[in-house]
Amino acid sequence: MKEQGFTTHLVHHDHNQNLEFGAIHAPIYNSATYGYDDIHDLIDIFQGRQIGQAYARQATPTIDMLQNMICEMEQGKASLCFSSGMAAIVAVFLTLLKGGDHIVASRFLFGNTSSVFGTLKSFGIEVTLVDATNVANVAAACQANTKMVFVETIANPATQVCDLAEIGELCDAKGLLYVVDNTLTSAYLFQPKAVKCHLIVTSLSKYFGGHGNVIGGSVTDTGLFDWSQYPNIFEAYRKGDPAMWGYAQMKKKGLRDMGACLSSEAAGQLALGSETMALRVKQSSSSALALALMLENHPKVERVYYPGLESHPEYARAKSLFSASGSMLSLDLKEGLDCCQFLNALKLVISATHLGDNRSLALPVAPTIFHEIGLAARQESGISENMIRCSIGIEDTDDLLADFTQALANL
Ligand SMILES: *Cc1c(COP(=O)(O)O)cnc(C)c1O
Description:
Elements (H helix, E strand, L loop, with lengths): L5 H6 L27 H8 L14 H13 L4 E5 L2 H12 L5 E5 L4 H12 L3 E5 L4 H7 L4 E7 L11 H11 L2 E5 L4 H4 L9 E5 L13 E5 L23 H13 L6 H11 L2 H20 L4 E5 L9 H7 L6 E6 L5 H7 L4 E2 L9 E4 L9 H7 L6 E5 L5 H13 L2
Parallel strand pairs: 2-3, 2-4, 4-5, 5-6, 10-11
Antiparallel strand pairs: 1-7, 6-7, 8-9, 9-12, 11-12
The structure holds pyridoxal-5'-phosphate.
Pyridoxal-5'-phosphate (PLP) binds next to α4.
């Protein structure tokens, strides 16, 4: 049979698990612990000889189902869920790196991820930030102790698109762990495995769940990395199939020891939200493009940042890699215009942080999410002081165009 499409597979995922009573949604298992008639079963689970549940800090049947769904979406070997995108990212760094290691990372990163690098430095892990839109900068930053390259697909807020395919080739040739944060594209717009990514991290709080009601994160091992050659795997996890060593270490150290586990309740909400991911992302990307085109020609707008515009420096790359350009766009108003006045004049668009919500959201970048890093770092990241970031939702395109138009007229 022909392989099923993205949404077909998602909406039939639960029912195909042979659920009790023919249920079409998997039940949400809220049990913290799991009991066995024969204690030998529990012992075998603890010792990895048998698959099963023990304690909800490592998994629940609901989390397992979500993990399997994510793994299939991303064509991976195994996936793990965490309590937030940040928990997933921190788990990757803290479980797979050690003092004395070096990371090369994109300079254009989600602000909190950059903030984590400050913490890593204090533990003796070196970080070099580069303009990763050109692989040559990544290659030039690699050192003898480099273990990992970390990039995002579309950078927030200035929408730079990293040299994803060439960085994949570089990591492959050098045996470096290639980690891609796919949050801003989602599994629907981009498959990082296609550019030889080893670990995909995603904030499920954004496009995956989509409804702005729950926070979560995931890591997927694409199965392309040779863990038998990775020096940082603890002896305890050098057992069985080497393809699962990295996963085992992230699960034990990241979930069991660090404890940032997702709840079954949240997993159930995320699974439900994900059913409409393709429909939502298609609609919001199409509105974002319509808005970007309108804004680019508007006399009160200085600049629009959106990878779907031909004027975008990485337009060709985004077009070849992503099935649409996503729903985040940023803009600079013309000199002298007040971005707060503009945001207050928007009637439909909510002034709020967050991305990938069904509702359109916007905020001024410099005084909020990029306030803490200061002016110099903002300039390094290509963030203007007047920049407004918008996360376009699934409202009707005409309503969004009308709202932006009236708010600009108001200035
Ligand atoms: C939001 C976001 C994160 C963090 O995710 P949370 O679920 O909010 O912790 C990480 N990376 C990117 C690109 C994000 O947009």
